[in-house]
Amino acid sequence: MGPPTLDKIRALQRNPRNIRNLCILAHVDHGKTTLADCLVATNGIISSRLAGKLRYLDSREDEQSRGITMKSSAISLHYSNGDQEYLLNLIDSPGHVDFSSEVSTAVRLCDGAVVIVDAVEGVCPQTQVVLRQAWLENIRPVLVINKIDRLIVELKLTSQEAYTHLQKILEQVNAVTGTLFTSKVLEEQAEREEEEELGGDQARDWSSRPEEADDSLLYFSPDQGNVVFASAIDGWGFSIQQFAHIYNQRMGIKAEVLLRTLWGDFYLDAKAKKIMKGAQAKGKKPLFVQLVLDNIWSLYDAVVTRRDKEKVEKVVTSLGIKVLARDLRHSDPKVLLSAVCSQWLPVSQAVLLMVCEKLPSPLDMAAERVEKLMSVGARRFDSLPEHTQELKRAFLRCSSRENEPLIIFVSKMFAVDAAALPQNRQRPLSQEEMAHRRELARQRHADRMAAGYSAAENTFVAFARVYSGVAKKGQRVFVLGPKYDPGQGLSTLPEGVSASDCVSAVPHLSCCSMERLYLLMGRELEELEEVPAGNVLGIGGLEDSVLKSATLSTSPACPPFTALNFEATPIVRVAIEPKHPSEMPKLVRGMRLLNQADPCAEVLIQETGEHVLVTAGEVHLQRCLDDLRDRFAKIEFSASKPIIPFRETVVRPPKVDMVNEDLGKQQKVARWSDTLNVDSSGLVTLTTPNRLATVSVRASPLPPEVTGLLERSTELIRTLEQINMSLREGRSLDISPRTLEAIAGFKVQLESLLQGRKWRDVVEHVWAFGPRRYGPNILLNRVAGYQRPSLWQCLGGGVQAGEAAATRDLDNSIVSGFQLATLSGPMCEEPLMGVCFSVEKWDIQSSVPPQHQEEASTSRGTPADCKGTGSGATRPEATEHGPIPAGLRPEAAADCYGPVSGQLIAAMKEACRHAFQAQPQRLMAAMYTCEIMTTADVLGRVYGVLGKREGRVLHEEMKEGTDMFIIKAVLPVAESFGFADEFRKRTSGLASPQLVFSHWEVISSDPYWVPTTEEEYLHFGEKADSANQSLKYMNAVRRRKGLYVEEKIVEHAEKQRTLGKNK
To answer: At a CB cut-off of 8 Å and minimum separation 6, what does 247 contact?
Structure first.
């Protein structure tokens, strides 16, 4: 078949019933791009002989050299099945964990997915991740078990053993899918139970609900037609249906019977000429082995193993296929094998047929998926405006009529060389056209030079899908930001407004023009005038309006789609600076372009002024640096060593010393100075330099479960802070019931985790979270008699804002000091984590009689004529009994920008730092989860590399039926650089690790430890110069930040003797 013409594809795009939007998902090196090559070859775009070798959709140079896919690429294919013609929008996605964000961008635009599993390695970590991503986006998967040739050639399994092995792989995949399904059913059940009002006489059968849920289309089974067995590199693949059709013609057995019995515990009784059940119990060959696998095994035996020419000729004749003489004579048996198999069981035919029959069309989009896409944040679909809910019908209709609203989702922006765009392709020109173009080029060059930019060699194309309406070239549309509220937009904008009008008044809503529309054809683009609903497309001209992803629509009632689910967390940071300082503007512009072109990379400027690039892993980092150097900035720059993030925390005092001797009850020494007092219990009291304010703070470690909960609830805490800020400012805020339920649930969880005498009523006294008001640290209000608005006032509790109006400003000073302290700790200026600061005393000293306050305040530059509104704020006798509690002094509210406020922030910050240092301090390291699949031969070397890099093995297990071991370990991010390369070198390429950021872990060693007991001196010596991992990390961070590092450069220096002759 020749390549489809552009007109043919345009015609197919108008029939959404026969469109299939699908992506290929798998673990790294399981054969995604090879299978994609086989599918592309069916359209004549590449030669079938080059399928698997060319890797057509890997268009980047580094993708070809490394042999892995780094970005998702789309191509449109034409497929005919009988009288039906289909358009397949195929997206190939990466399998490496560093590029899992590219998988998220691909999955969002699809209705189905082809999940590939290696027949030898089985279900791997990334296989589970992509199945979960497909599940979260509500798209239907089909399964391809690839590389079955490895079972024959490498593992040398018999056909019976291979059948058992394939059964186990199917069980593994179905177990992952079943777990996802069960969790979803239980979540829905819990939601229903919350919504329903439980009566006393209502009884519910809790056990029956999961069983009632329909899971008939959930699992993979060959007899359902959603599994293909293949070897993409050898060009063959088949489904049960194909062999049922073959044996229906040869043996006369009904195809329906064969479909039910070819996979399962059935065998063929030769005497009775019947298919019987119970093959395993009777020791018979299963039907699948007898009729399917034995034929493939005998073909491999004849062609690859024994190279029996006579048998090959018999096979070729019996199959009725033609093989070229040059293939028969070729020295490589794989060439002959591929020539036979690609005609007998072409993999493309099996996969494309399965895709067209089993994957849904855009018209079959589930209503549940539409509601999920349109429900942003904690808002429910039924709480959206009525006009917005009506758009659901437009989604489900997927209609291309003129009156339908246009809805497009852009999942990512990707950079394309300007020369590769269709409008810039070379074509014969007349003399007049050449002269005109020359003049235009000169003018553009002059304009760019005047603007200080070099010629733009990159342009951005949006990777998008039309969900409703028709996208037309030059059409203006609304760009809906992630925080856009359709209710606010509809109330602000006049009825019937279009994107051509100016809408600057509505926040998070802008307009842009879709200058060009492209058909994505792998490495090439074709220009289109319009694209109907249900199709994947490229859009040019959005680089100034869309950063990474966005929702486009002609209707302001359309809500922004929910954010993409990214599995990888950007954790690896490097600081970048140009070799020549004059090229800094080019670097800044290049980093801005890189940030737009990569869905996962982040670019930021730190407080120190460093330009920092944050990536998901080492391979991702290298790709981003190469892109920045060769494509976006085009300058020479230097990148620092990776900046490793750490966290600082405190722990409970240890009971034993470094040699496991009982410490007993050691008396802590109290410290004090003019303004600082630290008592033996760890309470820090600090007075401001102007002696007007005193604050007492105590630090204690939070339970690990609470820290984990705070980390997981970041978005919820941020929402809670926004609600409280609105209440403080007196603004009305429409809070959805679902958000209030989530906040109430979060509060209940906190109360359940903070149990015991020490944490009694703590949740009601929470003052703030930090750093940045939503971090994993807590500030508690333990000040006697100080009533302030509750953090949970949106749930109906708390005091009225008017009662605490006099203390609000100084209250903010305390919170600001806490935020600054938690943002950079005393050990190495890294953020704190899992620390609870309790303010136990907060006074403002009165050193001047009340009648002279006005003169004193004038000399200090502080207004004192403000009247307090708090209860007791005007009692003059309060000054006769010493210090007045904060909030009861009249000056408290008036001094919001005076010396008390500024010094109170600094005092609170210092008090928190000293309280932190009064407890046992520890560093927390970022940890990777490391999954390694390796053979028994190199198991020792794997453990050696892990041990050398401070790794810790959690568990290992052997894959049944193979000699492969699966090792799960944790490894500090600080030790992970160069880890994969060292692994491959030490194991001769037999093991390759997958690193995914997992959690933060406390490093057990104390960075400030010195020997104190006699046993420690005996064990470690006087210098105690054995390696302290925590101290090494801490000093490395301090050195990078330019902080003081306490270390001895020279110790016990001696004069060196000179052995020269006296002259």
So the answer is: 253, 258, 291
**pLDDT tens-digit series, residues 60-118:** 888 888 888 889 999 999 999 888 899 999 999 998 888 888 999 999 999 999 999 99
In the block, tokens 């043996």 appear at 251
Integer CA distances (angstroms), 579 to 572, 583, 611, in order: 22, 8, 14
C-alpha–C-alpha distance, residues 239 and 143, integer Å: 11
Rounded alpha-carbon distances, angstroms, from residue 964 to 120, 150, 728, 734, 929: 9, 14, 61, 56, 19
Amino acid at 720: L
DSSP-assigned beta bridge partners for residue 676: 686
pLDDT tens-digit series, residues 354-398: 999 999 999 988 888 888 888 765 566 666 778 888 888 888 888
Task: For residue 639, give the nearest of 618, 658, 667 by alpha carbon.
Answer: 618
Q: Rounded CA gap, 681 and 669, in Å?
A: 9
Q: Could you give the angle at which helices 714-728 and 737-753 cross, rounded to 10 degrees?
A: 110
**pTM for this model (two decimals):** 0.80
* Rounded CA separation 849/853 (Å): 6
* Distance from C-alpha of 825 to C-alpha of 647, rounded to nearest angstrom: 8
Using alpha carbons only, how large is the chain's radius of gyration in Å?
Answer: 34
CB-based contacts of 184, cutoff 8 Å, min separation 6? 135
Closest CA to 548 of 486, 484, 614, 479: 479
Bridge partner list, 994: 931
**In 307-457, beta strands by DSSP E:** 407-417
Distance (Å, rounded) from C-alpha 291 to C-alpha 285? Answer: 10
CA-to-CA distance for 775 and 154, rounded, in angstroms?
Answer: 52
Question: Which structure tokens are listed for 313?
Answer: 């000729």
Q: Nearest Cα to 566, choosing from 27, 105, 123?
A: 105
> How far is it, in rounded angstroms, from Cα 340 to Cα 250?
20
* Sign of the alpha-carbon torsion through 502, 503, 505, 508: negative
DSSP 881-945: GSPEETTSSTHHHHTTTSHHHHHHHHHHHHHHHHHHHTS-EEEEEEEEEEEEEEEGGGHHHHHHH
pLDDT digits (tens, 9 = 90+) for 160-191: 999 999 999 999 899 998 888 888 777 777 66
Per DSSP, the chain holds a count of helices (H) and strands (E) of 33, 36
Hey, which bits of 64-217 come out as E strands?
Answer: 73-81, 84-92, 112-118, 140-146
Strand duo 921-935 + 777-781: pairing: unpaired
Q: Which long-range contacts (CB under 8 A, 24 or more apart) does 127-131 make?
A: 127/26, 127/27, 127/30, 127/173, 127/176, 128/176, 129/97, 129/100, 129/103, 129/567, 130/25, 130/26, 130/27, 130/93, 130/95, 130/103, 131/25, 131/173, 131/176, 131/177, 131/180
